[in-house]
Amino acid sequence: MGTDTHAMVEQVKIEHVDELTVSFTTRSASKSGTPDDCLLKTFRCAISEVWTAPIPGAPPPVAMKSGAIGNLFLSRDGWQTISEDGYKIFGVDTDLALFKYPNAAAGPRILNRLAVRPSMIAVHGILHGSDRRIDIDLVGPDAAQAQDIAWTGAAEIEVKLTARGSYALHGHHETSVVRVWPTRILVQGAPEIDPTLSGEVDLLSCELAGLVQHIKFAHHGAPIILTLTQDGINAFHVVPGLADTPSPRPSSRPSPLAS
Predict the structure, then answer these.
(1) How many CB atoms lie within 10 A of CB 20?
(2) What are residue 166's phi and psi, to 5 degrees?
(3) Could you give phi then psi for residue 249, rounded to 5 degrees?
(4) Can you give the residue range of the structural domain that contains 79?
(5) Residue 48: helix, strand or coil by DSSP?
(6) What phi and psi, each to the nearest 5 degrees, are found at residue 230?
(7) For 160, which of 28, 68, 74, 144 could close a Cys bridge (C-beta 3.0–4.6 Å)?
């Protein structure tokens, strides 16, 4: 093979591997053109389309074993695989599918970390085990004070509810944790470095944000750390250079729960 034959699918979960094929789950591209159609789907391709050896200067490849989560380096043919119901891999028709590996001559996408005090973190998505669409504001009355949410694009997120939120969703007042596949995570707020500014980003937009995010706070109104592109930084009107040091990619309205 040539030296620039593969592109990285960031954050997949390996479901099954045998001598000939590998199946994995990851975020799909949209069929309709709207973010709400980017779903968690299972894809399958020949193992020969996967670059499994470590690549100098690149994130480590995902282990070829069931349950492993990480970066999958796929050939052009591998990227063209579709799910059984006709979905493509997220980023297949964008510059996320940058075929620079294993040579890795091109530099990685540059991301910045920005501390933001959120006035809204609106999660729109699909409730686990159903096709029910839900909306919840993580700093609203339906969400618990403390949250610890890891978004990778390869698995659902867990949202902690208040008794009010649980009742709205389940019809009872017990506080609970729900699993959601998010299709949008809209963050509004002010950058910690200048509370007079404000902005909004969708953390699931690859133009504005990194493909991996960790939203963690102990109480509503506490600052969170966002991993953003320069366009994402600009959305908060932050002067270039005032955000945290750039790093390569590693690779308020109450919202009703039921929509």
Answers:
(1) 8
(2) -65, -40
(3) -65, 130
(4) 4-102
(5) helix
(6) -65, -35
(7) 144
pTM of this structure:
0.86
User: Same domain, yes or no, for 24 and 83?
Assistant: yes
Q: Which residue is associated with the tokens 């955000």? A: 243
Residue 33 CA to residue 29 CA, distance in Å, equals 8
Q: Smallest Cα–Cα separation from 11: which of 243, 206, 216?
A: 206
| pLDDT tens by residue, 117-157 | 999 999 999 999 899 999 999 999 999 999 999 999 999 99
Last residue of a domain, one of 55, 74, 102: 102
| Tokens 């890891």, located at residue | 150
* Side chain identity at residue 259, one-letter code: S
Domain membership flag for residue 256: no
The burial class, CB within 10 Å (0-12 / 13-18 / 19+), for 168 is middle
Q: Dig out the tokens for 76 from the structure.
A: 């052009």
Residues 124 and 135 sit within 8 Å (Cβ to Cβ):
yes
